[in-house]
Amino acid sequence: MSPRRGGGRPPGAAGRPGRFAAWRSPSSIDSRIGLWGATSSGKTTMLAALHTAMTQQDGGDDDWILFSANEATRAFLARARAQIARREFPVPSPHEARELSLSLLRPDSAGWARRLVRRGTRRRARRAEFHITLMDVSGRMYAPATFDDQDADDRKQAGDLFRDEPEAGDAVELLVDHLARADGMVYLFDPLRELETQDSYQYLESMVERVLARAEELGRLPDGKLPHYLAVCINKIDDRRVFNAAYDGGFLSVSDSDEMLPEITREDAADLFRHLCSREMMGGAAGSGPWVRGSIERHFHPGRVRYFASSSIGFYVGSGGTFRIQDFANIEADDLGRPRIRGRLNPVNVLEPFLWLAESIRAAPTAPALESRRGGPASTGEGDGQPGHAGADVDDPLAGDDAGLGGVPGPQPRSDEADWDDSPFQTRIDEMPPPPPPPPPPPWQPR
Hints:
It is a single chain. The two termini are 13 Å apart. This protein has 447 residues and is an alpha/beta fold. About 27% of the residues have low confidence. Helix content is 26%, strand content 16%. It contains 10 helices and 16 strands. The longest helix is centred in the middle third of the chain and has 18 residues. It has one domain: P-loop containing nucleotide triphosphate hydrolases (Rossmann fold), CATH 3.40.50.300.
């Protein structure tokens, strides 16, 4: 199937200017976001690419600003950006849990350009603001470890990997608690690792079991499913093996950018994930892919899961200024055979998962952590880094006649937002645009 120009993207698809224009009232929300992925899945590079993704917005009124909220985060991002400037991949995180604090700010153009004074009262500019607390850790902390006893079964225990490193064991517990209390998660699915080692499910399930147990202690499993919003990122689509799988499956579109870069819409990203997790994956055995998909569907509400096809370094664009399907790899080897970044970064769907989480959590906050059943303090939304939940319906946070898939309501209309019906998240089926006309011949030459 050939790529299609424009992609027929419905309202609210990632990449369209103004996709979060529904934010109209002053807003400042704090939230915890978990960044989840196996070793070498690209977590550190993704965080480093966030700043580049910000600078490559289209310059409209709906652009976002990203800045570090503390010195530790500034130092981490500064080091990562310096490595990228040298065309080096950021060094993976050590065996420690490093908490990062970021702020996303989008000025509201209606109040930014002017301030009205009425009856001696100055009207403040309206804006949308979102504070994110992330925990950056080594991918090894998500790894299962087989028991030393050769007669043991296939049960895994994530903490055993660090049994000889007490400080790392403490970091694992911090990570589990952070994920259990989080409002949203970004899960990086690495198709290349799955193709080579077929252990994605082991990395995912070993940590899910711990997070489920901790979430139960915090009273966050009223219906047996995790309340988190989950952004699933199919990472490394710039790699030719992943790109070819998307191309051959008909999941690629041509963006409206001047470089004519390929893109995968969020609807196609969900189909691509199912394809990669099917019984046949990129010409090889499916490995643990079907189990990964089953684990996500089993432990998360389907109405709170969205899929993105992402790449932290993006596709290579040469001197011609346009994407060439014959030469798009943005990784090359140095003199010692080590991988390095070939050209400038063109991040793909690096910022969008965080913005979707921000909008979703603001519109329908997740259930807060209650009193821990093992006697420890629990998150209440006040004074423990988990604000934004005050006033949430603790008794039945998932109740409602208009519940979406899995009994979980999606973003609901707000009484103080008259233009909420314009939100891309509220488009009804009968309001969807008609199917696009047949696509013109693809602008790319055959592979």
